[in-house]
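User: Second chain of the day. Same drill as before.
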Amino acid sequence: MALPPSRFRFGPFVVERPSYRVLRDGHALTLSPKLVDVLLYFVSRPSVLITKDELFSAIWPDVTVTENALTQAISDLRQALGDEPSSPTYIQTVARRGYRFIAPVEAMPALEVGAPANAEPAAASDEGMVRSVAVLDFANVSGDPELAWMSTGIPETVTNDLTGFRVLRVVDRVRIGEAVRRTDGSMTAVARELDVHLVVVGSYQHAGDRIRITARLVDVTSGATLADAKVDGRLDDIFDLQDRIVRQFSAALGVEGAHGRSTRMGARETSKALYMNRGSIVCVRTGHKSL
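Assistant: Same format as last time:
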């Protein structure tokens, strides 16, 4: 039985639903997951007038979005495709109504599991796929108030390390904090607010001079865990432990960072990660202090 279309070709572009990427002549474009959602909605309905209300309901369900936000999303998508609104090749504006995708679209079957890499060169490899990821605060399982700063300190370090992965676009931690304040703080709500499909969640547990850190890279859409990491070690070696988290992600995903591994300056030179003084702890690398 033939599989339903999950990939679409138009002009020099291929858009893939399973991997959430758009390729131009075999090279991945840098698009947010939400822009991929909009493009997939268009190409699965070529030549059909799509109203603004329909786009709001389909792409931003249960979220209040202004018309300016939709206009900006269409503008960004046009820019990525090299389309001109005054003389469109792909997305036509229908005044006061909505939009129509006017280019011929070829629906393509999904690649079968185990298909050879040369079956479709542009789509068979995940190399070049860029996806957005947010690293959320880690849970302080042991409830140690002196190590409460690690709830944000560990994610900051993991965030910095993940920026070296070519296939990930990492959301700034300031934006994550703002998203948490605007929502109920749940993983799905924050992911929706930030327009990301991948989220890192984790926890840490302290006992004596030892600490255990666990982390998961989760695909929020499917609920699947893409990578698991767990490290145990001495509290004094906290920087190395955090590096190992990202290296385990790298191994599980089968990818390398831009330099092959984490290269943060000072991590190896400062094996003594913490200074303790009268119940307060200062993180050398972030300057964060917990009283």
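The two ends are 63 Å apart (CA to CA).

User: Great, on to the next one.
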